[in-house]
Amino acid sequence: YDRAADYYHGALAAEGLAPIANREMLRELGRVYLLQEDYPRAARTLQQVMQFELAPDVPDYLLLARALHGAGDYVAVVETLDRLRREHPELDAPALRRAVALYYLVEAYVQCAAVLRQLLALEPENAAAWHQLAAVYLLQDKRREALDQLSLARDKGIPFDERHTLLLADLQASEQAPFAAGNTLELAIAGGDVQGSGDNYRKLFEFWLQAREGERAISALRQAAR
Question: Rounded to two decimals, what is the model's pTM?
C-alpha cells in the first residue's frame, strides 16, 4: 500500500493529466488510505475529490463519510450524507443501505429513519429495514411510531422472529392496549412463533390481568407454573 501511494503521489505531482484522470487517481489513493485505516489522510484525499469542478459521484460521498467516521469527525459525516441526499435525492437501494449504516453509527437517528423510509419505498419486502426503522424510532423514544411501524409490518406479512413479536406485544401493552398485547402473544405461542416458556406465559398473564381478562390470566399463570 505504501508503494502504491507513492506512485499515485508521483503521478499527481507530474501534472499534465486531464482533471477526470486526476480525480480518479485521488479516489484510488483515498481507497488505499482506507485499506491502511489511515482515516485522516483518507478524508483529506477524498475531500480533494469533492473539490473538482466535475460533479462528485454518489460513491465519493459515501467513501468520504466512511473516512470521516474513521477519523472521528461525526458532524462532518452527517453533513456529507445530508449533502449527498440533497444533490442525489433518487439514490438506489445499495447506496441507501450504506447511508443508513453510516447515519446509525453516528447516532443521527432522524436522518436514519428518513433514509429507511426511502429504502422501504424501493424494497417494501425488506424485513430488516422494517424492523430497523422500529428500532430507530425506539432510540428516539418514539414508542407510538415504533408500534405503528411494527403493526404495519405484521399486517403486510413481514416475517417476525420471537424478539420482534415480544417487542410488538410489549409496545401494545405500554400504549394502553393490553388486550391486543395478550392476543398477539397468545397467538404467537399457540403458533410456535414464540416459545411457550415460563417467562413468556408470565408475561401473557400480566397482559390479560391488565386487560381484566380474569379467566385467561389464570390460565396463563397456570401454564407459567407448569
Answer: 0.86
